[in-house]
Amino acid sequence: MADRTVTEAAFDYAGATGRPRPVLGVVVGFCRGALPFSAAPIAPTLTVGRESTADLSVDDAGVSRIHVRLEHRGSGVWVTDLGSRNGTFVNAERVPEGGVLAPLGSVIRVGKTLLVTSPDVTPYANRRAPAFPELIGGASLDDARVVIDTVAATKTPILILGDTGTGKEVVARVLHDRSGRSGQFVALNCAAVPNELVDAELFGHTRGAFSGAVGARAGLFRTADDGTLFLDEIGELPATVQAKLLRVLETEEVRAVGEDKVVSVDVRIVAATNRDVDSMVDGGDFRGDLLHRLSGLRVVLPGLSERIEDLPALSLHFLADAGVGVTATALERLMLHAWPGNVRELRNVVRAASEVARRNGHVEIEPADVAAVIGATTARIGQPSQESELAARVTQVLAATFGSVPEAAVKLGMSRSVLYETLRRLRIDPKSFRAK
Description:
Blueprint: E1 5-7, E2 25-31, E3 39-41, E4 45-49, E5 56-58, E6 68-73, E7 76-81, E8 88-90, E9 93-94, E10 100-103, E11 107-110, E12 113-118, H1 142-151, E13 158-161, H2 168-177, E14 185-189, H3 195-203, H4 220-223, E15 228-232, H5 239-251, E16 253-254, E17 263-264, E18 268-273, H6 277-282, H7 288-294, E19 297-300, H8 311-318, E20 325-326, H9 328-335, H10 342-359, E21 364-365, H11 367-374, H12 386-400, H13 405-412, H14 416-426
Parallel strand pairs: 4-5, 13-18, 13-19, 14-15, 15-18, 20-21
Antiparallel strand pairs: 1-5, 2-3, 2-12, 4-6, 6-7, 7-10, 8-9, 8-11, 11-12, 16-17
């Protein structure tokens, strides 16, 4: 039976300006296989446990009745284990007696439940964004969902911005599927086609129009007539093709290479890039008039490391037909990875880890199966530099002493004057750690 997650604490949702003000809290990313995408504010404390009297009640047999207390402390969350039988873990490290500070973006594991500390959980309160099953994730994708719902049935061009592997083509396909257009969805990766062939690829060519043109070709614009043309990595288009593309967008007519007559087309354009096209326009590398034509509306897709709470749902999606499950500790290991390749990299790693798990005779992916694939690669929460290590130590002690500089100085073995100078250099405000 799917686990139940109930958020008992209420959101302080109204700000002075009428807009929701940010509220620090935790997002439930995983709970023994259930993916509620619920969240709870820490204002200023939050208890998590199996009992209904906990502020955040989770139906997880590995969680004690009142398992852990979370407190808003400075710019992070102070985590105190309340004598639980299985312990509490922050970024895979067991919480010591007395507690530990979890920076924002940390993964807290209680039983088989994974929580992510977030600077703002208000997007999860009273969500009104439409649901699209293809867009897997929580509130981080709500802006994209709203844009799709608003303009899918129009001909408004869309520019999708995001790093490689964030799912730009998935969004483009959802736009097409909801458009009601009768034609095909046609995609071109502009970076994968030699510059001298992009023109012919888009607009078509006659037989013998250039060396190697042994036959005629209609081109992607005509292929996508009455449908959608997705131009990925639009920032890689050569200048000559940019000019021709602009003219097609203005006239809705295409002329094949080597041909005199023009053909009318009705094509909805969705473009995407991982480059800063606005800076490219400023630098003269991309036409400003073309950018204005392409970006009727913009959709910005966050990197996976910016929506790490979505990783369990994505992982289970990629494992749907794999015949193996995944443990909470393996998901925890995945959530602590940096993911420079974003969702595409996650898909490849999870599928490879499932093969390793099968070879090892596991019915669920274990942390060792994940390690066999990603090894000791870059961690999202990695080894700190000497300065950041000092900042982390000072922050931990200030959090433990509720911002008392005299007490912190004693614990750190510093004089008050040295600690004050250290705080000034590190730009740490001790007042932010005082009890709310």
